[in-house]
Design goal:
Blueprint (H helix, E strand, L loop, with lengths): L11 H4 L12 E6 L3 H10 L5 E7 L3 H11 L3 E3 L2 H6 L5 E4 L6 H10 L3 E5 L6 H14 L3 E4 L6 H12 L5 E7 L3 H5 L1 H6 L7 E5 L4 E7 L3 E7 L10 E5 L3 E4 L8 E5 L19 E5 L18 H13 L10 H19 L1
Parallel strand pairs: 1-2, 1-4, 2-3, 4-5, 5-6, 7-10
Antiparallel strand pairs: 7-11, 8-9, 9-10, 11-12, 12-13, 13-14
Helix pairs in contact: 2-10, 5-6, 6-11
């Protein structure tokens, strides 16, 4: 039964009544394609999902696959991606290889009839991503773009607030991160996947920026500081009645701050003698039972995405609503256009 008044941080698939929270128990046998650091961190999170069984890993060299398997207690190791994808013992494949191989490896798994969770960015271009979704739809399998930030409770809360209209009409979002795809995804989060960009301006290589306009009233200001810099790493979503801040690190936040003026107040310090709007802070600590030595910031939150995949497949969904095909393609198209403008 669906909770008639779910908390705003409730996972979107559960909040919409599409899945049941208990379906994290849904059994899935996972194969891991690629043995890099991200794959290792994914495995350590995935093993905490009650229904998950990690049964295989594949690399181009069997020795690498065997070492990974021995390290993370995985039964089968393959020196061939094709062989693992063909295994009848695997239900779903995590593609954790480098970006330029995402399309090739996802299509390999899809062609074998496997569900796929592919690390972000999903592909090199929007056109490649469309080809991947078309293939998945033809096979009737899940293809999930692994934009894990969308599954964090803090982001779920922010989305619910935007939908409720509590900050009014969203007019501006500002986001920064050295990996552009994280900053870009803030645009459809703020404005919705149906919003149509009308103008994209981008420049800069080592440190870059883009301005994405949605008509005359909505704008995304996205910056991509160098990796080795003291970047702000927050996302601001600014509306006509208030503001939401996804706190640092903005791409995987454990807290949000909401600023809304008092009733009948004016959201502008220039009309309130510099009095700020009252701030409400909401904290969502990382899952304490996930252990990842040497993790990237908040990587333990992979768990939220993993649980959603289990719930959604239990319900027969072929994409998670937190980051569906439309949003994924929205971001992939923007990434393609911004990359072309920056690098030619």
């Amino acid at each position: 039964m669906t909770d008639s008044n779910p908390a705003p941080s409730t996972p979107l698939d559960v909040r919409l009544g599409l899945t049941s929270a208990g379906d994290v128990q849904h059994k899935l046998r996972w194969g891991i394609l690629g043995t890099g650091r991200i794959s290792a961190q994914w495995v350590l999170s995935l093993r905490e999902v009650p229904g998950a069984e990690i049964v295989a890993v594949a690399a181009r060299e069997e020795e690498r696959a065997r070492t990974f398997a021995d390290t993370y207690d995985i039964p089968d190791a393959y020196g061939s991606y094709e062989a693992m994808c063909a295994s009848p013992d695997v239900d779903i494949i995590y593609v954790g290889t480098i970006t330029r191989l995402h399309k090739e490896h996802s299509l390999l798994a899809i062609d074998a009839g496997k569900h796929v969770l592919c690390e972000k960015p999903l592909a090199g271009t929007g056109a490649d991503a469309r080809e991947m979704y078309t293939a998945a739809e033809a096979k009737g399998v899940l293809l999930q773009d692994a934009m894990w930030t969308r599954f964090f409770p803090a982001v779920e809360h922010a989305r619910a607030l935007i939908e409720s209209g509590v900050i009014g009409e969203v007019v501006l979002t500002q986001s920064d991160f050295f990996d552009p795809v994280y900053a870009i995804q803030a645009a459809p989060l703020a404005f919705g996947a149906d919003a149509k960009p009308t103008k994209v301006t981008a420049s800069g290589k080592r440190g870059g920026a883009a301005i994405v306009e949605y008509g005359e009233e909505q704008t995304a200001v996205l910056t991509f500081p160098p990796f080795l810099s003291e970047l702000t790493e927050v996302t601001e979503i600014i509306g006509t009645k208030g503001r939401i801040t996804l706190q640092q690190p903005g791409h995987c936040p454990t807290g949000i701050t909401v600023r809304i003026p008092p009733e009948n107040g004016v959201p502008s310090r220039y009309r309130t003698q510099n009095a700020p709007a009252p701030a409400q802070h909401f904290e969502y600590p990382l899952p304490g039972h996930v252990s990842i030595p040497g993790a990237f910031p908040n990587q333990h939150g992979f768990l939220y995405q993993a649980e959603a995949v289990h719930r959604c497949l239990a319900a027969g969904l072929t994409v998670c609503p937190q980051y569906n095909k439309k949003e994924s393609l929205h971001v992939m198209d923007l990434l393609t256009e911004i990359t072309q403008a920056r690098y030619g």
